[in-house]
Structure prediction request, 295 residues.
Amino acid sequence: MSSSPSSSAQAAREALGANLRDLRQRRDLSGREFARRAGWRSSSIVSEIELGRRTITTRHVELWCRLCAADPNEVRRLLAEQSAMARMWIPYADLNRGGLAAAQKSIRQLYEELAVAQSYQPKVIAGMAQTESYTRAALTGVLTEQRVDTTEPEADVEAAVAERMSRQKLLSRAGARWFFLIEEPVLWYRPYDWRLHREQLRHLLELRRRPNVFLGIIPVGADRRGAHPEEAFDITDGTLVTVELVSGYLSVTRPEEVALYRATWDRLWALAVTGPAAVALIRAALERLDRHTGV
Prediction:
């Protein structure tokens, strides 16, 4: 992708702000007069919202619509736009507000209903392809890295692990296909104990045997010709893209942006090896791990 995915959320905020500005200007209201009617001391608040420099809430949209006498259709359109914008970006502080287990359960329905899941990972094993031990280690790290506020951290991690493992049963759901695409270095990266990593690599060998699971690995030596590694992303049914960033969770639904991710997926998948060639890369990583650990 040519720009940071977080720019999608900012672009959506700026687009909504521009629509609010257009609504105000069509009613011949200056920023100063609008601020006076809103009961604000400064018109700078108006410009900050309309330029997308402030979070635009439902209350803001309702205020613009009321003061500018928007018709019902326009009110519905602007509120729908604000709702979509709000769902696009979720800081981890909000996502994890109810704990790790609640965050895991919040996305369960998406997995229960999808038909095609495509997950690209350049650094870690995708959640749906993780062993229980790998998941436990990963979520324990999330607890610290994302500063999850919970009174019982160990219990929360275990509940979240149980939810993730339960969700993995959906890999056998009829009518669903699961594509996992990873960069070869993911097979080498060892963020946890070597025994755990070996178990995870062996799990990948078993996972790829499932009839509706497809594993692709992009070799280090692939002739990429400009197809650089990208940030991790998931595509659901070709209409929703989700990206986990350092500070939050991004959801992209605008067709033109989703199309960019779909094109990127196609370029990356074309570089991947599957079947016996993928198995060979995993076995090579296992042999390398065993040599380094003296097993």
